[in-house]
Amino acid sequence: MLKPAPRPLSYADFVARMDSWPEGIKYELIGGELFLMTGGTPDHDLIKGNVYLLMRRLFPACYVTTGDANLKAECLSEENGYFPDCMVVCTEEGKKDRYYDHPLVLIEVSSPSTQYLDRAKKKQDYMQLPSLLLYLIIDSSRNQVAGIYRKSGNTWVEFAFSNENTIRLPVIGGLPEIAFTAAELYEKTGIKQQQPKR
């Protein structure tokens, strides 16, 4: 006899289950299913700290979170629950009791095991958030940063940079001009700069 397919988990059920997770264990809700999050490397943690300090400097009046804050991402017919490595939320309505929404900036520090998810599923889901203006993906195994920003309406621009290059994003949606180097993101890590191509 065939067993019925399990009912997709709702976001409300997901939030209710958070209190029962063992300390140090987190799951993300993707398409109604729970996915265990794996721990990061020391370099991954250093990058997260560098990102947090940079975002606090760029957005002093906003909420800047680390990877322990849950994002409710309402995408198409799904309600997903993600733990971005950093998010910037600049409205009071974006901070709820158990989660955040209405992010302006989302940042993932990507590892080999999460790279596909960060560059595919999460990227597509994040692009559907009407408040989002910038999404950064920082590689934790090599000096490489990629991202997208919303130019106007629903037009997205992709970019990538590494080493000492400075990324300058135009003023978008009321954001201040954003300018920083990859070196700031990778400060104190063991990740070597890529040699320029000859």
In short:
The chain has 198 residues and is of the alpha+beta class. The protein has helices spanning 11-17, 42-58, 115-119, 121-127, 182-185, and strands at residues 27-30, 33-36, 63-65, 71-75, 78-82, 86-89, 105-110, 134-139, 145-152, 155-161, 166-169, 178-181.
Q: What do you see in this structure?
A:
The chain has a domain at 41-68 and 84-185: tt1808, chain A. A hairpin with a 2-residue loop joins β4 (71-75) and β5. The chain has helices at 11-17, 42-58, 115-119, 121-127, 182-185, and strands spanning 27-30, 33-36, 63-65, 71-75, 78-82, 86-89, 105-110, 134-139, 145-152, 155-161, 166-169, 178-181. The model has no long low-confidence stretch (mean pLDDT 87). With 198 residues, it is α+β, with helices and mostly antiparallel strands. It has a 6-stranded mixed beta sheet with strand order 3-6-7-8-9-10, with helices on both faces. The protein has a two-stranded antiparallel sheet with strand order 1-2. It has a two-stranded antiparallel sheet with strand order 4-5. 20% of the residues lie in helices and 30% in strands. The protein contains 5 helices and 12 strands.
Show the helix and strand layout.
Elements: H1 11-17, E1 27-30, E2 33-36, H2 42-58, E3 63-65, E4 71-75, E5 78-82, E6 86-89, E7 105-110, H3 115-119, H4 121-127, E8 134-139, E9 145-152, E10 155-161, E11 166-169, E12 178-181, H5 182-185
Parallel strand pairs: 7-8
Antiparallel strand pairs: 1-2, 3-6, 4-5, 6-7, 8-9, 9-10, 11-12
